[in-house]
């Protein structure tokens, strides 16, 4: 193999390595956002996602509980099904910038609510991924 061919292969390898490093650096800034809210806010949350540039996410319907007295849940395990609120849980792996934008939009949205059921959100770092 000629020197020129070896150099070309090395150049391809260097390019590939730098692309992998860039990709790895990009993922180091990835975060996980988890949102819970009452089901009535579903369409509003989708709009907030759209405004913040978050296009990929997952969601699930959940039962939400708030301030259930221990007497009710301790004396009858069927009581745990009473008082549940239809809620949603959404999550997305995304960039910190987009999630920060989402947090700003959620803060604004919550400040205009007339109920005691704000949208809740947390952001977690991604330590490792495959």
Q: Can you characterise this structure?
A:
With 130 residues, this protein is α+β, with helices and mostly antiparallel strands. The protein has one domain (30-125): 2-Layer Sandwich (Alpha-Beta Plaits), CATH 3.30.70. 45% of the residues lie in helices and 25% in strands. The protein contains four helices and four strands. The chain has helices at residues 3-28, 42-52, 70-75, 96-111; strands at 30-38, 58-64, 85-95, 120-125. Strands 2-3-1-4 form a four-stranded antiparallel β-sheet. α2 (42-52) packs across α4 (96-111). The chain is globular, with a radius of gyration of 23 Å. The two termini are 36 Å apart.
β-strand number: 4
Beta-strand share of residues: 25-35%
User: Helix-strand pattern, N to C?
Assistant: HEHEHEHE
CATH architecture group name: 2-Layer Sandwich
CATH topology: Alpha-Beta Plaits
Overall number of domains: 1
Question: What is the CATH top level name?
Answer: Alpha Beta
Shape: globular
* SSE-based structural type: alpha+beta
Q: Which percent bin holds the helix content? A: 40-55%
Distance linking N and C termini: 36 Å
Radius of gyration: 23 Å
Major β-sheet annotation: 4 strands, antiparallel
Query: Strands across the major sheet, in which order?
Result: 2-3-1-4
Low-confidence region ranges: 5-10, 18-22
Topology:
Blueprint: H1 3-28, E1 30-38, H2 42-52, E2 58-64, H3 70-75, E3 85-95, H4 96-111, E4 120-125
Antiparallel strand pairs: 1-3, 1-4, 2-3
Helix pairs in contact: 2-4
């Amino acid at each position: 193999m000629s020197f020129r061919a070896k150099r070309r292969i090395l150049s391809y390898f260097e390019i590939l390595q730098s692309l992998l490093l860039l990709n790895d650096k990009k993922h180091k800034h990835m975060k996980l956002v988890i949102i819970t809210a009452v089901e009535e806010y579903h369409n509003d949350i989708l709009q907030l996602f759209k405004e913040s540039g978050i296009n990929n996410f997952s969601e699930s319907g959940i039962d939400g509980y708030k301030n259930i007295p221990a007497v009710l849940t301790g004396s009858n395990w069927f009581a745990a099904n009473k008082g549940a609120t239809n809620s949603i849980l959404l999550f997305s792996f995304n960039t910190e910038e987009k999630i920060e934008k989402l947090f700003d939009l959620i803060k604004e949205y919550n400040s205009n609510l007339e109920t005691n059921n704000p949208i809740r959100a947390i952001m977690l770092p991604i330590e490792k991924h495959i």
